[in-house]
Design a protein that fits this description.
By secondary structure, the chain is mainly alpha-helical. The chain has a domain of 175 residues. The chain is built from 10 helices and 3 strands. A hairpin with a 3-residue loop joins strand 2 and strand 3. Helix 5 crosses helix 9, helix 6 packs antiparallel against helix 8 and helix 7 packs across helix 8. The chain starts with 24 loop residues before the first helix and ends with a helix. The N terminus is likely disordered.
Length: 266
């Protein structure tokens, strides 16, 4: 979902393995209030949602989170981990540009943090944040970290947030009469709407798992090594067969990743 769960993007991040939304509520509230204060914003009708609109909102949220981490001296503060992520992600971005030409024009940013409250997420338009705490907790190999990064890249290039906003309007057409900022806020804070969108969120997680694994394999990573990330999710979970609010169960993701890896070996 365009959210702070693992999910994901456009305006809000998909925090890869996490259970809570990555962007802080005060930041969202302040941003929403600011947009609604713009003359004419209250009457704006997002009848023609597009990727550029979604990316513009995403940039505001991402820049705010990056500024917060920088102020707290938690941005790119583990030099070794940051260098490791940059080394792994660059070939993935080159592959994404080949597979999804639109993304070649994006101004990708990939930052890291040691903040234990973060896992990994991406914003629409190629804005990524990864926490060393998540990698350390699971003792991720380079290949498994590549899977995390490729999953987040996949959320972005598959335009998952845009699709989520469109689904929200399909489910509740009244949102088409509201400003875009209100819709962005609702998909992460309106409980009934979030419940309706949860099945789409679970579907998008599986799509990002599959597309990310395929992308990373085309970039040169061994498929079974990539799939090993999901085995570690299962091992670290106290309820591996239980689905999250908008996430499939770790066990189901592990099964799907194994099957996808086996297909790539045929």
């Amino acid at each position: 979902m365009a959210t702070l769960r693992c999910s994901c993007y456009a305006a809000l991040p998909r925090a890869w393995g996490g259970a809570g939304r990555a962007v802080r509520a005060p930041l969202l509230a302040a941003w929403l209030a600011g947009l609604l204060a713009v003359p004419g914003a209250a009457s704006a009708v997002p009848l023609a949602l597009d990727q550029q609109q979604v990316m513009a909102g995403a940039a505001v949220l991402y820049n705010g989170r990056i500024a917060d981490l920088r102020t707290a001296q938690l941005l790119d503060n583990d030099a070794a981990f940051h260098a490791r992520v940059q080394r792994i992600v660059q070939p993935l971005l080159l592959q994404a540009a080949r597979d999804y030409p639109e993304s070649a024009a994006w101004q990708w940013e990939v930052h890291t943090t040691t903040d234990p409250e973060e896992h990994a997420y991406a914003f629409a338009g190629g804005k990524v944040l990864v926490s060393s705490a998540h990698a350390d907790a699971l003792n991720l190999s380079d290949g498994e970290l590549a899977m995390v990064l490729a999953h987040e890249i996949a959320h972005a290039v598959l335009r998952h947030n845009l699709l989520e906003y469109e689904e929200a309007i399909r489910l509740e057409p009244a949102w088409a009469e509201q400003p875009f900022a209100a819709l962005e806020h609702a998909v992460d804070h309106d409980g009934p709407l979030m419940a309706k969108l949860a099945p789409l969120g679970r579907q998008q997680e599986l799509e990002a798992d599959r597309a990310g694994l395929q992308l990373a394999a085309r970039a040169g990573w061994e498929p079974h090594v990539l799939a090993g990330y999901f085995r570690k999710l299962v091992q670290a979970s106290s309820a591996p067969n239980a689905s999250g609010f908008a996430h499939p169960s770790p066990a189901s993701r592990w099964r799907a990743a194994r099957a996808a890896a086996a297909q790539l070996h045929r």
